[in-house]
Amino acid sequence: MINFRLSSRITNLKNLHLLQPSFERSNDGRSIWVLREDELGGFWGTKFRKYASILEHCRRENISRIICTGGINSNNLAAAAILCAEFGLKVFAFAVEDHSDNNAPATGNRLILKTALAPDQLILVPRSERHTVDTRMQELSVKLNTAGCKTLVLHEGGGCIEAVPGAITLADEVVRQRREWHDNKIPDHIFIDSGTGLSAASLAAGLVKHNASRKTKLHVIQMAGFEEQIKNAFESWVTPVTGVNWEETKNFLRVYRPLSPKSYGATSKELFAFIQMMAREHGILTDPVYSAKLFARAFDLIEGQNLRGRILIIHTGGLSGLLGYSFK
């Protein structure tokens, strides 16, 4: 049985004046905290919540094969390869290659995939053939089912209805009593990053279920696409499970794009300097695709909108993504 009572610790960012000259200490009416999902389930962070319910579903339904997709450097593919293997499930990953993959060394998530998956389980897909992946996954599912191996097909980011019961436990984590918060008051503002939108939409639905949506504002930093990603996550996965729809989140949820570089996966010298600062000044490792852009945008919005009160930034993990880069 998978234990859904997953727990992360929080830490207070006490030296925010180090991040930008205009920041003050927490006696200015704001206190900023980080929910350390990056310490939950190794590299995988919040994805561990999603896979907790995916794996429990597989156990109940006697599913023995997982078919998934994503970029060759995908945090989700690496998480699937390791977490599913731990529970005896065989993973087939359709990994879309980057343009430079022919000469790229095996580092980061690419290295994890090539370590954890046998050659017949790692199907490399040229970027020009990405449009064929859904059809190929379904064809493989039919083939394996015909051979007596029951399968589950996951979309990018582990997107499936079965992931929602685990993902929604993040809301339980946000609202639970903490000794650090003696007044038992939930945060006035919550920041989270988003790729496919499943975790962010599940968090929003969970806050509605806890009657917390009138007490907090949820700020989603969407790394690819915009509001349509969150809307699609509700329609495809979250609403069928929770009964909460996108329209019910309009009064407390806001979606933003990251600061420059805005393109998904794009990096810059300034971004890596920010990553170094977060590690050196605060002991928090971030990656250039998701979490570093989350923190940078959150700090920008906190200052630009003069946000006050208790502020919670959710570090969703994905640190293996950092290991695929080199910088001075």
Keywords:
328 residues; alpha/beta; Rossmann fold; 2 domains; six-stranded mixed sheet; four-stranded parallel sheet
Helix-strand blueprint:
Layout: E1 10-12, E2 30-36, H1 47-61, E3 65-71, H2 75-86, E4 90-96, H3 108-116, E5 122-125, H4 133-146, E6 151-153, H5 164-167, H6 169-175, E7 189-194, H7 198-209, E8 217-222, H8 227-242, E9 253-256, H9 269-282, H10 291-304, E10 309-315
Parallel strand pairs: 2-10, 3-4, 3-6, 4-5, 7-8, 7-10, 8-9
Antiparallel strand pairs: 1-2
How is this structure best described in words?
Helix 7 (198-209) crosses helix 8. The chain has helices spanning 47-61, 75-86, 108-116, 133-146, 164-167, 169-175, 198-209, 227-242, 269-282, 291-304, and strands at residues 10-12, 30-36, 65-71, 90-96, 122-125, 151-153, 189-194, 217-222, 253-256, 309-315. The protein is built from ten helices and ten strands. With 328 residues, the chain is α/β, with parallel strands linked by helices. Strands 1-2-10-7-8-9 form a six-stranded mixed beta sheet. It has a four-stranded parallel beta sheet with strand order 5-4-3-6, with helices on both faces. Helix 3 (108-116) links the parallel strand 4 and strand 5 (122-125). The chain has two domains: 10-45 and 163-324, 3-Layer(aba) Sandwich (Rossmann fold), CATH 3.40.50.1100; 47-161, 3-Layer(aba) Sandwich (Rossmann fold), CATH 3.40.50.1100. The model is unreliable at 17-27 (pLDDT under 50).
